[in-house]
Amino acid sequence: MYFRFNKFCCFIIITALIAGCERQSSSVNDNDELPPAVPAGVNIFYSQDGKIGIEWILNNEYDIKSYQVYRSENDSLHFRLIASAYQDYFVDDSLDYDTTYFYYITALDNDNNESEPSKFVSAKPANKNNPGKPAYPEINARNWLDSISIYLSWANNPESDISHYEIHRSEQQDFTPGSETLLGISLTNSYSDKYNLKLYTNYYYKIIAVDKGNLKSGASDEIYDSIFEIPRLLYPSDKSLVNYFNYFLIKAVAVPAKYKIVLQTNEYFGEIWTKEFESNIVNDTISIIFDADYIELYKDYYWRIITYSNNSLKPNSISGLYRFTLKE
Question: Which of 52, 69, 212, 245 could join 83 via S-S bond, C-beta 3.0 to 4.6 A?
Answer without folding.
Answer: 69
